[in-house]
Amino acid sequence: MVHFNHYLVANSLILAGAVVRARQCQNITIPVSLTAENAVLNIPAPVDDVEVTNFILTSLKSIRDGAASTPEAATISGQYELAATYCEPDAGASSVLQILTHGIGFDRSYWDFPTHQHNYSYVNYALDRGYSALFWDRVGFGASTIGDPVSEIQQGLSVAALRELTLLARGGEIPGLPAAFEKIVHVGHSQGSSYTNTLTTMYPTISDGMVLTGFSHVSEYQPWGFISLHLSDANSKPGLEKYPHGYLVSGDEIAVQMVFFAPGQFDRDVLDAAYANAQPITVGEMATTGQPTMNHMTGPVAVITGQGDIIFCGLDCYATGDPNVPSLLSVSEGFYPNTTGFYPKVIDGAGHGLNLEYSAGTTYSEIMDFFAKYGLSP
């Protein structure tokens, strides 16, 4: 059964000239049956911060040396619940649904951030432009089903969950949502972008358009992120006791600032809230998030990332070392040979946590303009 918590949110939003006066939202719990090919990992779940650090150092060495072999795969199946929120404009459901997938360090509130919401809610911005939005806690996190952090909550299961959510929405099979949408587009952030990209790589026709934020196809700087996150055992942190050992979370507020916030581009209240509500990543995810491969999606693709993104640009997306390559995001174009349109956009001055910085309105405007250009606006 799908459980609903209906509410009407009425507010006044001023964000890059937009005004949202009211919206209709409902929190929903969606039961799904998932099957995925996961990796067989011979990794014990670290039970304290010393073991977490050992795991990180070993992982970094493996990244440096290159994977020695492809892990054996195993099929896993199970019943899960996905916690989500569906919002539509006060005038009613849109013809276009945006499915929003958060990255590491957050749950679905990343898209509708409660602190100074009038400045940072991507959902409000999308609703004001006539879209409906479905944003969810990735399987294993937030209010969705928690799982084994080594063998279960990996890239394979996460992508399977996003696929099932998309198919249910496209088929009009989620109670409380419209019977069908004319078009469905996907927006991801960070790890959520990686999973969204993998989804469309595996199923090129599943999405009408895709925006990957906080992302690039350059992997050499990802170890910087591992180090800067200062990961520790989530189970020992107040408020995160529900997560078993093997879930890892940023160890302090400095780590959150280092990874997500560019210098001088954020409100300290937002940083405080991001740290206070930080969500974890699993050992299984870290071990199985692979390198992007060729994606034969035909719909339009945008990659939108902050200039100072530490994970995907090494603090400067313009530092390509080649005058013929305008940004590191331009490298991504070669991975989408069949797309009807590719758009790389560097958000000047921004960091990895695009939705939580002063430039959020610029980011949101770029996304909406991209969708409109390719006929994906309501």
TrEMBL record:
Pfam families according to UniProt: Abhydrolase_6
Range of residues in the leader sequence: 1-22
Domain of life: Eukaryota
Domain AB hydrolase-1: from-to ranges: 99-357
InterPro entries reported in the protein's UniProt record: AB_hydrolase_1 (IPR000073), AB_hydrolase_fold (IPR029058)
Keywords: Signal
Protein's name in the database: AB hydrolase-1 domain-containing protein
Organism this protein belongs to: Eutypa lata (strain UCR-EL1) (Grapevine dieback disease fungus)
Source taxonomy: Eukaryota, Fungi, Dikarya, Ascomycota, Pezizomycotina
